[in-house]
Amino acid sequence: MTVTINRHKSDYSAIESAVKELEDAAYKRGFQDAMNAILSAAVSKAEIAANMLSEKAKNAPRIRIQNNGTEKKSVQERTIEFIRENPGRTGAEVVSGLQNDDPSVNERTVRTAFNRLRGKEIENKNGKWYPMK
Prior knowledge:
There is one protein chain. With about 130 residues, this protein is mainly α. About 60% of the residues lie in helices and about 10% in strands. A hairpin with a 5-residue loop joins strand 1 (about 65) and strand 2. The chain is rod-shaped, with a radius of gyration of 35 Å.
């Protein structure tokens, strides 16, 4: 910023006015620099937090809450539990057993759970399901 003071006016108010303008301009630049630094830090922290949350979300078990406030397990979890408690059942028997506990369980969902869990948690021998050791 350039400030021109009329040389013929040597009064103190012109100098005072120029100094005030310089101070105001410096304050505005400093304030803007500070706001930019704060914004940059906030964005950086938000990105770190978002990455941490997405990592936690990947590893978190899926929990559904029923109307009565209790935890409702996924069909895969219930399928594993049923097979552990009742080894040697056919697929139709597993589906029936799960539907007896919860009529909203869909047969296709249980069949999908069989395919996803096969070789990891459960195994099929001669058409019957067993937990893996």
